């Protein structure tokens, strides 16, 4: 509902509130913790695994994406 309403802050909190599944799956994607940290430091609302991985999704506003992308590329992602 938050995504449809355009409330990215609430959507991000809900997505990152998945403490049940993600803590088990995140270890399957070695780069996940680094990507999540970089995204958060650069203004992302949330970073999460799609399914069991390995796809990592970042929820961020369009204006934050260039900085997130640039920082991830610096780290060879």
UniProtKB/TrEMBL annotation:
In alphabetical order, the GO MF annotations are: ATP binding; kinase activity
Q: Which Pfam families match?
A: GHMP_kinases_C
Q: Which InterPro entries match?
A: GHMP_kinase_C_dom, GHMP_kinase_C_sf
Q: Does the keyword Zinc apply?
A: no
Q: Domain GHMP kinase C-terminal, which positions?
A: 2-74
Task: Alphabetically list the UniProt keywords.
Answer: ATP-binding, Kinase, Nucleotide-binding, Transferase
Gene3D superfamilies associated with the record? GHMP kinase, C-terminal domain
- What is the name of this protein? Homoserine kinase
**Protein species of origin:** Streptococcus pneumoniae
Q: What is the lineage of its organism?
A: Bacteria, Bacillati, Bacillota, Bacilli, Lactobacillales
